[in-house]
Design goal:
This protein is an all-alpha fold and 118 residues long. It contains 3 helices and no strands.
Length: 118
């Protein structure tokens, strides 16, 4: 490091090896870079960061919604079981209706026998 600082200290700034137009072009380009390109790059990076943060927020909301949907639809297999049991109950109710008619006719016949016997 001392070598570089010593070299820079020994440079004579009054001696210019390049034409003045080159120095003007260099300063102009440097000024354009500092005034235009750097702020533009910072603005574009900031815009990209905001978009990335928005995407992250939307993904978190989507995750919450997906979990809620999964929770709400977790009872679907139980509903399928309920439908299977319900269809069995319909069959049983039909059989009960058939047998209740038989039971009613048997009870009516017994009632007539008892009223006829008395």
């Amino acid at each position: 490091m001392d070598l570089i600082l010593g070299y820079l200290a020994n440079i004579d700034t009054s001696v210019r090896t390049l034409p003045d137009a080159v120095y003007t072009i260099w300063w102009t380009v440097l000024l354009i870079v500092v005034v235009v390109i750097v702020p533009l790059a910072i603005a574009l990076l900031h815009r990209t960061l905001r978009a990335a943060l928005s995407i992250r927020r939307y993904l978190e909301e989507m995750l919450d919604a997906g979990v809620a949907i999964a929770t709400n639809t977790s009872s679907i297999p139980a509903l399928k079981d309920t439908i299977a049991v319900g269809s069995g109950m319909v069959e049983t109710a039909g059989r009960l209706k058939e047998h209740s008619a038989t039971i009613a006719s048997v009870l009516a016949a017994r009632a007539q026998q008892q009223t006829g016997a008395t």
